[in-house]
Each structure stands twice: as C-alpha cells, then as structure tokens.
Specification:
six-stranded antiparallel beta sheet, 191 residues, single chain, 4% helix, disordered N terminus, globular
C-alpha cells in the first residue's frame, strides 16, 4: 500500500529579470519560479499533480500585449513509455503554499474546486529520464494580466489515459530556479 506522499520541492521567492530590446517593438522578461510542490495519489503513484507558484511583476499590466509566453521546467520520468505523456496546465483557483495543506486527501484532484480547466494549455513528455518541458502558456498569462484570473499559480497534471509517474526536478544549481516563465510582449506606452 502506498503511503500519502507529498514532495515539497522548493520555496523561496520569485526573481524577475527584465530585458528591454531598445529600438524594437518586442520586450521580454524572465520570471524565475522557486515555489513548487508535487503531490502523488497514495493509491496510484502514476497519478501526479505538480504545482508552480510565481508572481508577475507589476510592470505587466493591461498596456502590455503578450505575444508569447513559455513555461520551462524539468521533469523526471523513471519508467520508459512508448507514447508521449500529455500534460494539461491549468490555473489554480485558491491560494496555497508549498508548506501548507496540499495533501492528496484534500484538494487538487479534480477541476472546479481548486483549479479551473476551462482555460488551459498543453505540453508533452516525450522521453524517459530527466528532460526539459516547454509549454506555450501565453493564453493563461494574458488572462492573469487582464485581471480575469487571480494568480495563484499553475497546476500540471496528466491528461488522457496514458499515465506514468513524473516529478518536477529540483536538483538545481544555486541561483537558478525550479522553473522559468519567459514572457514576450509589446508595450503600448512605448513610442
């Protein structure tokens, strides 16, 4: 019998690096994500939820038009598989903390209570072992910026019938993040 397992990967802060392309219409910023948790179903180790929490800088407001946003994170899949694993990325609808009550017996097991799946993005795990996943999450970031959603972070879970155990990799070098969010945008206030 599997025991209820919660892996607290990291907590600390969100670090933002602003990059400006002077003379160009496109600007970008990198948000380092250092708050994460992985929750595993105690009855099925292949049923996993990964939670990521980040802060958008105050500079990101409705005068910015997001053209592209890419979420980058590393995962580990210990068991080989034949087909890609589909991941669904959805906004979390309630406040949480990596040190708080995020056990499997509580929330995070279905949409409607703690996350919304009406707006989502997809990603794939294509290989066994450690790999970097990149997902286009511009749609979600646009909703956050336009104040249509409160930013409580993102939940990542397997979508479809093929399930394999996975976890977000936390063996990072000092000064790096668990995940990164790269946002490319046009500033409507810039001449």
């Amino acid at each position: 019998m599997l025991r209820n397992r919660i892996f607290h990967l990291a907590l600390v802060m969100t670090i933002v690096v602003l990059v400006s392309n002077s003379g160009h219409a496109l600007d970008s910023l990198i948000v380092n994500i250092n708050q994460a948790a992985t929750i595993v179903n105690p009855e099925d180790a292949t049923d996993v939820r990964a939670l990521l929490r980040f802060d958008l800088p105050t500079e990101m407001d409705t005068t910015k038009i997001v053209t592209f946003a890419e979420l980058r994170f590393r995962v580990n899949t210990p068991v080989a598989f034949e087909r890609p694993i589909r991941l669904k990325i959805c906004p979390i609808t309630r406040n949480w903390s990596p040190t708080g009550n995020i056990g499997w017996s509580g929330p995070w097991t279905h949409p409607g209570g703690d996350f919304a799946d009406t707006i989502s993005c997809m990603a794939h795990i294509d290989t066994c072992g450690q790999t970097t996943i990149k997902a286009d999450v511009a749609r979600l970031i646009r909703y956050y910026i336009n104040n249509n959603l409160e930013n409580n972070g993102l939940i990542i879970y397997q979508h479809g019938n093929l399930r394999r155990a996975f976890s977000i990799v936390n063996n990072r070098l000092p000064g790096t993040a668990v995940a990164q969010l790269a946002i490319y945008y046009v500033d409507m206030n810039r001449e």
